[in-house]
Amino acid sequence: MNYILIAVIVLGAIGLVAALVLFAASKKFAVYEDPRITQVGELLPGANCGGCGFAGCAGMADALVKGADAGNIEGLNCPVGGPEVMGRVADLLGMAIANGEPKVAVVRCNGTCENRPKIAEYAGLRTCAAMHACGAGETACGYGCLGCGDCVKACQFDAIHINPETGIAEVDEEKCVACGACVKACPRGIIELRKKGPKGRRVYVSCVNKDKGAVSMKACKVSCIGCGKCEKECPFGAITVGNNCSYIDPDKCRLCRKCEKVCPTHAIVAVNFPAPKPKPETPESPATNERKEAQE
Amino acid sequence: MKFNAKTFSIGGIHPAENKLSNDAVTQVAALPKQAIFPLSQHIGAPAVPVVQKGDKVKVGTMIAEAGSFVSAPIYSSVSGTVFKIDTAIDATGYRKPAIIINVEGDEWEESIDCSDKLELVEAHPELTPEEIINRVKVAGVTGMGGAGFPTFIKLTPPPTAKAECVIINAVECEPYITADFRLMMEKADEILVGLELLMVAAKVTTGYIGIETNKPAAIELLTKKCAEKFSASTFHVEVVPLKQRYPQGGEKQLVDAVIQRQVPAPPAIPVNVGAIVQNVGTAYAVYEAVMKHKPLFERYTTVTGKKLQSPSNFLVRMGTPMQDLIDACGGMPEGDNKLLAGGPMMGKALTSVEVPVCKGTNSVTILSDDDARRKEPQPCIRCAKCVSACPMGLEPYLLAKISEVQNWERAEREDITSCIECGSCQFTCPAHRPLLDNIRQGKATVMGIIRSRAAASQKK
């Protein structure tokens, strides 16, 4: 009985002393952390994808609070959460909403098996980076999609896949959060983050080939030949041609689609527009083929 | 004939020789209709064009000057008119800037000595080391073994290193290629004068010529000529027979085999252990540049392949499309083929026969589909064959894995930058794993990281 009592007293005394030491230490060596960092961290999605440019959501929360203290959270944007989450974060921090327009990854190559014939067979390691280091790849285009899926491996959101029929990467707009992982993974720099556009409507040049027109035409039927027709046609000055390749500035483009109509190689693509009265796809493609045959 | 042959100390493999064109006496290749000169034929900055569209050029006219210190000028190998300055597919597989010349006739610059007379160093007292190096630099001579490092830089070692000997790389350990062997058989005297010039330029008196024992005729011939030429002189030159082992032609392996010294990990180079290594083709090019005032615009190239009608050796003007050479050997064999600029081990696969012969093109190899096709990779069985084969003492299975998972810090710690990309690991792997493919990716990335780190610390 006595032993039990002694043990309880001794342990109780040790516990008391330890508690006092811990209490003193926690007061003396306390590190102040802004409680808002935890609160903001709770609002963020917790995907830790790195799409915001920080190592994870905790880093982003820290940067947001620091930015709020400095009076500016512009340029900080959570691509996963989008405007909704950023709005809530801004409310919490008492700041104006500072998010840009939602973006989406766009694969700027349309060199499908049909458009871009194979001229060789690659038998090495099937990654885009390895194939890119070996040369132009299986087709004659040294700029286009290699189709080995380095972007697919990089995507944490299952939002980009290689279409087995075309052999080209395709983005799932619903799933894409514009974190930019695929942009970094692509050794050819084909993928670009572009404004999602109203109702997902976008017009862009689906080619990055910088060879002269005659050369790129030989390699791929739908390559941009840098003819400059679109540049002349555009009423808003959104299009520039440089290095034999055209580029549409998403900030200036008003989606009038005039460029799409004049492009001789159909390198300019418009997506998510409602179909005009007769379907545009079906009558267009045979017509192009006929024109091609006539040329040949 | 028995030799007391040496070799390097670690790793190495022995691929089938397939030296099909050993006995094919070198032919002078026909002039092309149009010659293509890529501006980047060497390691370093691309050359800068000094001609314009429509300019008339002769054989030996400079058409592009060195772009920076580590660079080399390019000379026209044909006479004619500059057709355009455009892009053309080169051995990298990509379109790169190039000068394209339409060939008309065959008119040479008057400064070039076209006679066959053998010029000796003794007859030219004006040849100081500086003068030799300058002439080599002006002539645009680069390493002829494939990598294409400007030769004049190799001859001017950094002040921290002191050259003790010149080693001539006549190993030709790559299967199929015979261009160096034919050159030795046909131009032995010139090569020895070239070696003497290299020794004078590097201010050394010792020279070695490393030749593998599968070329007994060359060993015999050069030993005899060396004895005749150097026995009474102040130079000590020795022909070193080497056991057949790939990659003995690698600089570091050759230094190890010939003088038993090991070159430390990069950025150390052979001259840090006292050796300047030059390809036998380079020695010949140095002779022609210094003694004949002939810039580098033609070279010995082997065109070979088991299914090719007549594998041959050519003295070919640079800028000649490979198609012309293949046609001269009976045309591209039927069926699927793999076209390589270089040999089967280190050659670069090409997707176009329009690629021109450049300064570093020692061979055009055509492999049949059966020989070239890779087998399906199997899981690694940890047999460590790749470790025994690696001539740099690395662990290829590990480097390949950490490159695959993109662990760049670890890759750097494991010395991935020491890899010479010889492909011995992949050749020997019983599971047919793409080891080198992965390692090459890792090496390129790690080198990029090291470079940007150096640039960043320089900024600070």
Please render the helix and strand layout as text:
The complex is a heterodimer of chains A (296) and B (460).
Chain A: H1 2-28, H2 35-43, H3 57-70, H4 82-93, E1 103-107, H5 128-134, H6 150-154, E2 160-163, E3 168-171, H7 181-185, E4 191-195, E5 202-205, H8 213-219, H9 229-233, E6 239-242, E7 245-248, H10 258-262, E8 268-271, H11 281-295
Antiparallel strand pairs in A: 1-4, 2-3, 5-8, 6-7
Helix pairs in contact in A: 2-3, 2-4
Chain B: E1 27-28, E2 34-38, E3 48-49, E4 56-57, E5 62-65, E6 74-75, E7 80-89, E8 95-103, H1 129-138, H2 151-155, E9 165-170, H3 179-186, H4 188-202, E10 206-212, H5 216-230, E11 236-242, H6 251-259, E12 275-279, H7 280-291, E13 298-304, E14 312-317, H8 322-328, E15 337-341, E16 348-350, E17 363-368, H9 369-372, H10 385-389, H11 396-404, H12 408-413, H13 424-428, H14 435-459
Parallel strand pairs in B: 1-14, 9-10, 9-12, 10-11, 13-17
Antiparallel strand pairs in B: 2-8, 3-5, 4-7, 5-6, 7-8, 13-14, 15-16, 15-17
Helix pairs in contact in B: 1-4, 4-7, 11-14
How many helices of chain B in DSSP terms?
14
Nearest-integer average pLDDT of chain B: 93
Architecture (CATH level 2) name of the largest domain in chain A: 2-Layer Sandwich
Number of helices of chain A: 11
- List the strand order in the largest sheet of chain A: 1-4
Shape of chain A: elongated
How are the strands of the biggest sheet of chain B laid out side by side?
Answer: 1-14-13-17-15-16
Share of residues in strands of chain B: 15-25%
Determine the N-to-C terminus distance of chain B: 62 Å
The largest β sheet of chain A comes out as: 2 strands, antiparallel
State the name of the first-level CATH class of the largest domain in chain A: Alpha Beta
Rounded to the nearest angstrom, the radius of gyration of chain A is 28 Å
List the chains of the largest interface with their residue counts.
A-B, 18 and 21 residues
* Molecular shape of chain B: globular
Q: Would you tell me which CATH topology of the domain at 121-291 in chain B applies?
A: Rossmann fold
Name of the CATH homologous superfamily of the domain at 121-291 in chain B: NADH-ubiquinone oxidoreductase 51kDa subunit
Structural class of chain B: alpha/beta
Second CATH tier, the architecture of the domain at 121-291 in chain B: 3-Layer(aba) Sandwich
